[in-house]
User: Which sequence fits this backbone?
């Protein structure tokens, strides 16, 4: 597939998010279903997820940089980024409002934290997917 | 933008041919965009900014209306 460095970068970010944060959410879901209700046990799992995201990003971008001619974003890349951002940022907004509502309703902090994390994950994944759609189908 | 992409036609492929088969990469380097963006413009998948459109026309030494034409989609 013929891709610019920026498009490759989007694929790498999507892969790192799905592998890292997606993996974390699966493990966290299992922990929550097993009755873990405090935040500290989730911290090491989250730390592993962050390391995984960073590692996949670094490795992927090194490969992308080696296999790409130009590394600079042009006006099309910026337009696609802006469009995707505006089409996905509402998800994080809904999550933040939901978290505030949950705090008002005295929902456990562990659920509020994960609601925020899920909305961040959803927002980023939708953004990357929209970018890929715009790159492939035109903008 | 996708709708306007359908209504803006261009002659970049023909003009490249008449400029010693200039490659998309050569045009992209002179205009200051990526080759993939030139490919998207040529294929009608992306309508460039006015600045990039003028730069492309300048590379070919043509007025902008000889490179890009607005085709009324309703007509």
Assistant:
């Amino acid at each position: 597939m013929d891709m610019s460095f920026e498009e490759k970068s989007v694929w790498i970010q999507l892969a790192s998010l799905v592998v890292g944060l997606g993996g974390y959410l699966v493990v966290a879901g299992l922990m929550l279903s097993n009755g873990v209700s405090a935040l500290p046990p989730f911290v090491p799992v989250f730390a592993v997820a962050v390391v995984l995201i960073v590692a996949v990003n670094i490795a992927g971008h090194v490969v992308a940089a080696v296999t790409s001619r130009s590394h600079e974003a042009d006006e099309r890349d910026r337009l696609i980024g802006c469009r995707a951002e505006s089409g996905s940022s509402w998800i994080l907004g809904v999550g933040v409002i939901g978290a505030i509502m949950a705090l008002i309703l005295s929902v456990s902090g562990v659920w509020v934290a994960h609601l925020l994390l899920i909305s961040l994950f959803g927002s980023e994944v939708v953004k990357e997917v929209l970018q890929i759609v715009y790159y492939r189908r035109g903008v | 933008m996708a709708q306007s992409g359908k209504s803006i036609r261009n002659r970049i492929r023909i003009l490249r041919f008449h400029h010693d088969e200039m490659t998309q990469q050569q045009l992209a380097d002179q205009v200051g965009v990526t080759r993939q963006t030139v490919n998207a413009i040529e294929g009608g998948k992306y309508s460039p900014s006015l600045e990039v459109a003028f730069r492309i026309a300048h590379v070919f030494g043509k007025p902008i209306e000889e490179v890009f034409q607005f085709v009324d989609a309703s007509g």
In short: Residues 1-5 of chain B have pLDDT under 50 and may be disordered. The helical segments of chain B are 2-7, 12-18, 24-31, 35-42, 50-60, 64-67.
